[in-house]
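Why do we bother with holo predictions? Because pocket geometry can differ from the apo form. Keep that in mind while you read this record for dinuclear copper ion.
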Amino acid sequence: MKLPFFPEQASAMAQQVDAISLFAVSISFVAGVGIVAVLTWLGLRYRRSHRDEVGSAGHSSNLLEIIWSVIPGIIFIGLFFWGAKIYFENYRIPPDAVRYYVVGKQWMWKYQHPSGNREINDFHVPVDTPIELVVTSEDVIHSFFVPALRVKRDAVPGRYSTTWFEANRTGTFDIFCAEYCGAEHSLMIGKLHVMEQHDYEEWLEGNEPAQSLAMSGAALFEQNSCGTCHRSDSSARAPILDGIYGREIALLGGGVIVADDAYIRESIMNPQAKVVAGYQPIMPTFQGQLREEEILELISYIQSLGKKAESRTEAAAAVSDEGE
Ligand code: CUA
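The structure, written out:
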C-alpha cells in the first residue's frame, strides 16, 4: 500500500503497524464524518421554524442504544487485541535473532556487530535476518528510531532495552534520535544500510575488526585482573563465570535472579547490590573505569563462556544449597 503520509516500509512489522494505524484512523474518520453528517441533517430537519415552537421530550430506543454501544464496543475490543498482538511480536525477541549493540552518546550512535565490527552513525545489517538490538546510552536519554522499520527504543543510561527487526528489503534508511538530548540532538542521525547477505559478509571482511566482541571482552577481563578472583578452581573467591549467562543464580540473603545483561552490568558497576549466595561482598566497583561499550564486550565474553562448565557450576550451586 502506498500512501504518502506513511514513511517507506522496510519490514513486515512496518506493514502491520501501518495496517492498524490506518484502521484506527479510518474508523475515526468514518465515525467523525458520520457524526457531523447526522448532526447537520438533524439540525436542519428539526430546526425551530417558528419563534413559539416548543421541543418535545422525545422517545428513547433501547434497540438503537444497544446497537451503538455494542458495535463500537466490538470494534474497540478487536482493536485492543490486534494492537496487543503487534505489541507482543514487537517486544518478544525471536530466539534465532542475532544480537547487535547500540550505544547512544551526545551526539552519535555507536554500533557493535557480533563479529566485533564497530560503526558510528552508519549501520550495516543483512536483509531477511532477525536482528536483536540491545540499546543503551553513555550519558543522557536518547531514542533510537528507524522510521522505515517502525522501530523506536529509548536509550537509557544504565539500562539495556531490547528490540528487534527483520528488514525485508535492501536499501538505505534514516536513523534518528527521537528524544531531545541537547544542543546537537537534531544532528544525531545516521543511515541504516540493509544489504544482501553476501554483500554484508563482504562488507564485514572489508572492514575486518581486530577481534570479536567476546575477544575484546576477554582482553578486558585479563587487563582488569577479573580472573584473579573469578578463577575456575575451587579456592576462587568469586563465582565461576563459565555457563553462568542466562542461568538462575541464588543470591546471598535469599532470592534468585537470572544472570542476564542487566544483572551482569550491575554486578560490574555495583557489585555489592546482588551478591551470589556462598560468596562475600568483596568485589570492588568498576564504575567510571569501563565505558558502556567495554561492559558490553565483557558481557559478550561471559556469554561466550557458554555451557563449558555447566557441571562445575551445578556442583557449586549444590554446595551453596547445602550451606543454607
Ligand atoms: Cu540523542 Cu536526541
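Residues 7-35+77-209 form a domain with the Immunoglobulin-like fold (CATH 2.60.40.420).
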